[in-house]
Amino acid sequence: xxxxxxxxxxxxxxxxxxxxxxxxxxxxxxxxxxxxxxxxxxxxxxxxxxxxxxxxxxxxxxxxxxxxxxxxxxxxxxxxxxxxxxxxxxxxxxxxxxxxxxxxxxxxxxxxxxxxxxxxxxxxxxxxxxxxxxxxxxxxxxxxxxxxxxxxxxxxxxxxxxxxxxxxxxxxxxxxxxxxxxxxxxxxxxxxxxxxxxxxxxxxxxxxxxxxxxxxxxxxxxxxxxxxxxxxxxxxxxxx
Length: 240
Hints:
The protein has 240 residues and is α/β, with parallel strands linked by helices. The protein has one domain (9-233): 3-Layer(aba) Sandwich (Rossmann fold), CATH 3.40.50.150. 38% of the residues lie in helices and 24% in strands. Helix 2 (30-47) crosses helix 3 (63-70) and helix 5 packs parallel to helix 6. It starts with 8 loop residues before the first helix and ends in a 7-residue tail after the last strand. The model has no long low-confidence stretch (mean pLDDT 88).
């Protein structure tokens, strides 16, 4: 029986077209480069990734995966956009980044292959681009070891996010390519929390990410009305 891959071909094509620009700091991916230190510091502050086996789902060109490897983690980045993965692999070679590998595989397929194999799983800015985000959340839960951490970041489906993330970022300021995000695919925190509960993940920390488009400054806060992150933990197995 043919496996049905939880991916939107149009989304994969969209990011493949831009693949060569992943590591151009003035490209459409500039916002990802600018928020990456915040994401990395938050993840590392909770999970202490040095020496840990880390999986980055939806790694794209490897911005987060590469930085986690440079923090001392043993990182596997996975994606279904072949061109982006080739860019990630090339960058790792050029930058001499040790401890990072990349694979073209879906999280669901990898969960069947390597269940409970990772200390930390990250899935950042990816859930809003797939047809069934709950399936990805479940795969993340299956892939992490008991007691391990799973981190998510995505965009809230709210009037403010429509104004800031689509109208502002894509159409007025040109920070992102037009069509990067679709409003109906955005995910409310309550919806992501429900997916996490269904997958057996305990929500431990929530942070919002704010942005001043004039100063290009990003910071973490308690405001989850636009961009937000979840830190979830898989409970330790209870002995019978």
